[in-house]
Amino acid sequence: xxxxxxxxxxxxxxxxxxxxxxxxxxxxxxxxxxxxxxxxxxxxxxxxxxxxxxxxxxxxxxxxxxxxxxxxxxxxxxxxxxxxxxxxxxxxxxxxxxxxxxxxxxxxxxxxxxxxxxxxxxxxxxxxxxxxxxxxxxxxxxxxxxxxxxxxxxxxxxxxxxxxxxxxxxxxxxxxxxxxxxxxxxxxxxxxxxxxxxxxxxxxxxxxxxxxxxxxxxxxxxxxxxxxxxxxxxxxxxxxxxxxxxxxxxxxxxxxxxxxxxxxxxxxxxxxxxxxxxxxxxxxxxxxxxxxxxxxxxxxxxxxxxxxxxxxxxxxxxxxxxxxxxxxxxxxxxxxxxxxxxxxxxxxxxxxxxxx
Length: 356
What we know:
- By secondary structure, the protein is α/β, with parallel strands linked by helices.
- The chain has helices spanning 3-19, 25-36, 42-55, 58-67, 93-102, 117-127, 159-168, 195-206, 225-242, 252-263, 295-304, 348-353; strands at residues 79-83, 105-109, 133-136, 149-153, 178-181, 185-189, 216-221, 267-269, 274-276, 287-292, 309-314, 329-330.
- Strand 2 (105-109), helix 6 and strand 3 (133-136) form a beta-alpha-beta unit.
């Protein structure tokens, strides 16, 4: 790693520390505004801020650069368009930092679902000379930018329409190099019902209302839902006391509960969330699918739903899920991944520094 990259990491770390400091009035105002306008709950924003404070450290940035083989400064800057999701607060931080660390030129489409928080980070980085570029909540504001590369996180169903819109605005087209992350959910494979396991499972499922790709939408356990639902719902209620669910489901969730009841499907109705004992692919929000089985069953389901799967979580650091399409991660880290984690198995920093 050359001196220029080391210096940039040091400068980036200083900027992040100032951005996350309690004295940053701009961030505090953005948090207040996001809560008042109903974008996110305060507990969820607080959790994300605390997670970023833990994950964005100089040593972790160095590790990220080393893993991405970022040893030499790029010779040619590219215009990188980041289309940020807004399903979680500050969900696009990794992409922003990847562009800043790579040295490329940043163009950003900020989500209408998270319009304030990311811009405080971008303004801080721009003031410190770590980001050059422009961004907006409105895509037409970026008309004519002609991006050299595209980073996208979101639904696979929106990709074609998105590329058509980008082409109309002369921003990007089908020939533009693209890193598309479209995974939708994660699976947890648990092997006991200890207090620690149930606590981490509740957090992995219910944090952010289960809206993240790292959120658990299916759990594989050696015991049935019926034998454990009373105990597990106690952990859920304890979680909700401290972290009330921000977004409520539509009335269709109750109809699903009624259908399950008529069909004799084991389930647990939690008013704002449904747990059902089925192996159906997780496609609907506010539903946890409970499957009785072992590691082999977890591998089977991971392969079956691999196109929409982000990762498989385990509780034992030494656990292996043989023949699974992804390497397992620890469930306790489900909602606070390291800054160098690889969405959909792709390292955005490595991808950016290898752009041709």
